[in-house]
Amino acid sequence: MAELEFLFRPRSVAVIGASHNPEKIGYKILNNILSGGYQGKVYPVNPKGGEILGLKVYRRITEVPGPVDLAVIAVPAQIVPDVLEECGQKGVKAVAIISSGFKEVGNILLEQRIVEIAQRYGMRVLGPNIFGIAYLPANLNATFGPSKVRRGNIALISQSGALGIALMGWTQTAGLGLSAVVSVGNKADISDEDLIRFFAEDPNTDVIVIYMEGVHNGRAFMDAVRSCPKPVVVIKAGRSKRGAMAASSHTGSLAGSDLVYDGVFKQIGVIRARNYRDAFVVARALADLPMPKGDRTVIITNGGGIGVLATDAAEAEGINLYSGEDLKDFKAVMPPFGSYKNPIDITGGATVEQYVQALRMAEDKDTVDSIALLYCETAVCDPEELAEAIKREYKGKKPLVVAMVGGEKSARAVELLNEAGIPAYDAPEDAMRALSALHLWQRYRKKRRQGGEELR
Ligand code: ACO
Fold it and tell me: Strand 140-143 to strand 132-135: parallel, antiparallel, or no bridges (unpaired)?
């Protein structure tokens, strides 16, 4: 995967089609690279010359004085082959082709031509038909998406441009941290499997989330996922017949039978997300939590209703709610009218201190493998104080997910926990879904280990 290093950690970047017009894509990309704090050399290229954003503009890439690792190409599709030839002559290592107007609109030959040119010069191609690439550890934001991206350990690969850009912004407000955002577009050369292999070895990435409409090479994708020691979460669009038709006209993907995808995903250990929101519900837990030792889960709650909803969700998600005799110990941390039967209901009058005691007990018990802590906002237990107490008390030895339901203060408390790396949600179903994904990933790991595969 050494060649992909040039895509993610280039020592220098040229923007070909860097525009003088601040409204144009070529300008936005250059602006994002500069405002993102990229430390390598940046070369705008445009036959008009002059200056853009304080940088000297080179009329062609061959005039750039130093070596160029990555060229981001934002010129109309018909010009791309000529530009690519010059990139090859210059010794560029990787190109990201933003331009649309290739296979997705039937210009198959034009797309084949750019692949052929790139291969001739040994260049790797991301795209075409993409919004770019961002790799946060290198302060590289070569996209025309949002200029600010929250840093974290989730890599996002998107076959959809607009959705990928939207998710860059959405993860920012949802408090989710990304290591990378990669738009794959038509996947003329660099594929999902190439990227999975790169992220499998990337020390800055712990979870890979893919929005996918179709796979070009099923066997290679399966091999890449199987050999990846990190969870791969896939949002596979085109589930329905009409959805598959829409995918075909969007990215030219053959969506294939959804049942086949579902079966293959289970076989190779992909965690399939129902939608993008669901993908990040599970990714948050997979990115932040330790693996459970077993599958025995307890729910701690101050509300009976929220506990029942969580129990329903647990059953639907296949979570094993622990029911051993030693649950009686929880009687010590609740009033006489509480219930120690899982869900452990410490009742509506529960204080921060009672939550803390219940959490400590659950963390200390060998019979408990993972914990869901639920909270309904009351006047006797301030949500932000509870969040601070959880942050202080949680030892991080077994998975803990939190759901807090209430007003603004609860929303802020959810943010506080997420910022501290404790997955928190505003609905009990999300918390249970997150735990179930963790247990599923644990089962996949076990299966692979039994198959003799190496895992972290
Ligand atoms: N080398 C370098 N620069 C050149 C060259 C060349 N050989 N030829 C022309 N240019 C310059 C132009 O002069 C222009 O600069 P200027 O504005 O200073 O004059 C700049 O390159 C851009 O060229 P334009 O002809 O103005 O093209 P425009 O910016 O309108 O569009 C683009 C180019 C963005 C690549 C367009 O063709 C395109 O494909 N847009 C779609 C992008 C897209 O949506 N990608 C898909 C995924 S994202 C999603 O779905 C949301």
Answer: antiparallel
CA of 75 to the centre of ligand 1 (A): 3
What is the CA(83)–ligand 1 centre distance, in A? 12
Measured in Å, how far apart are the chain's first and last C-alpha atoms?
20
Could you tell me if 157 and 135 are in contact, meaning their C-beta atoms sit under 8 angstroms apart? no
Q: Is the C-beta atom of 45 inside 6 A of ligand 1?
A: yes
The answer, yes or no, to whether any atom of ligand 1 lies below 6 A from the CB of 129, is yes
Q: Which domains does the chain have, with CATH numbers?
A: 1-130 (3.40.50.720), 149-288 (3.40.50.261), 290-443 (3.40.50.261)
158-176 b/e with 16+ CB inside 10 Å = b?
bbbbebbbebbeebeeebb
* pLDDT tens column, 292-337: 999 999 999 999 999 999 999 999 999 999 999 999 999 999 999 9
403 and 294 Cβ atoms separated by less than 8 Å: no
Residue 336: exposed, middle, or buried by beta-carbon count in 10 A (0-12, 13-18, 19+)? exposed
Q: How remote is the CA of residue 111 from the centroid of ligand 1, in Å?
A: 17
The residue assigned the tokens 């099923």 is 218
| Residue 1 or residue 174, greater confidence | 174
* 317 Cα–ligand 1 center, Å: 47
Nearest to 297 by CA among 283, 311, 287, 284: 311
Q: Does ligand 1 have an atom closer than 6 angstroms to the CB of 251?
A: no
Is any ligand 1 atom within 6 A of the Cβ of residue 160? no
Kindly report the pTM of this predicted structure: 0.94
pLDDT bracket for residue 454 (50, 70, 90): very low
